[in-house]
Structures are given as structure tokens and as C-alpha cells.
Amino acid sequence: VATTGVPRAILGDHGGDLQAGVRRFCRQHPATSNLYDVAHKAATLLKSRLERDERWSSFGTRVGQTKFQTQQTEWAFLVPPAQRSKARYMNLEPLLNWATRTLHVLDELPAATLRHGTPERLDEKLGWLREYRAALAEWFEWHTLAQATIDEVRRHGYASDTVGRVERRLQSAASTPSAAVLRDELIAFVAAESAAARPDERLPGSSEILESAFGQLKALEG
Prior knowledge:
222 residues, mainly alpha, 10 helices, 2 strands
């Protein structure tokens, strides 16, 4: 503060290691808003749902088994993507895309795929994915809602018009009851964070630009 002045906002992931200090700072400096990074909030909402979903737990186990069972076979090009140990719920898209595309291969049996092996062998290694068809559709819908919200806040920040943008974007994106609940939670979250913005303000809602700058710095250092 002595060097730069009182900040207008502090944007973070609301981790326990920082929140007590941030709250104390904001009590001492009421002009500073304590904002929640949208990507971390969306990941938290997805995590809470997926970790309660028994289908997700068994799906993860089957994915791990399949990776070892296919990587040294004729179906190695269909091996599941590696899962990140950190920020896993912020990076669901590669896994969901893999499962959806592999299901399409199982359904259509394209000639380019069958050049590598028989339908029976393909089904032996990957046929279990059919059991998760409905679950994958539901999970993909959750992920789509989260990503659309992140994209709007990433582009427009927390501001008086951001809630309307998110509402319009998510209006027709929920076809299941669980997705509708998630949609409402995301809209309520954006509304609460945007309430801190004055009429003429756009406050940051994502730390990605800062993380990208750090990434560039590390690349140069390397």
C-alpha cells in the first residue's frame, strides 16, 4: 500500500492459506473488494458434483485400467489422455472429448480404425465406455456451462452487465435437472461477485492473463 496505493480488488482462488489475510486486509481497507477467480469457482462446483457421483469414481478407475491395457497394443492411438495431478477439475475437457470421440468410434466402426484390428478386440478394450453414455452426456453439459461462464467473465470481467451476458449464454444450455441447478448456481455466483463493481467499473474475474505472463517468463528463463 505504501508503494502502490490501496488496491481496488484482490482476486484469488479463496484458498485457506490466503483467505484469512485477504479478509483482514479488506477490513482495514474497505475500498478493496475480495473477488473469487471464476475458473477456480467453476472447478469447485464441478468437483463437488463429480466427487459425489459414483459413476465418476468408477469411470476414473476404468480409464486408468484402459490406459495400461491399450498403450502397448494395436489400439494405442485410442489411449486415454494423461490426467493432471493438480487442477484436475479445471482440465476435464481432454478426458471428456476422448470418451465422446471413442464412443463414436465404437458406434460407427470406421474403416480407418478397423485397419488396425478387429471389432471384437476394440470392444474388448474399450466397449465398457457404452455403460457411461448417459453419464458422459450429463458431465459434458456441466462442463459446457462452466466453460461458458468462465469465457464471459474472462472477456468482460465482473461488471453490471456481466450477469445478463451469462444468463443469455446459459439460457438454453441446460437440458437436465442437474445442469439447471448448476446453471443457477453459476449465475448467482457471477451476480454476487459483480455486485462489488461500481456502475462504471469492470473488475477482473480471471487471473489467467497473469498466469500466462508467468508462463512466458518461465519459457524465456528456460
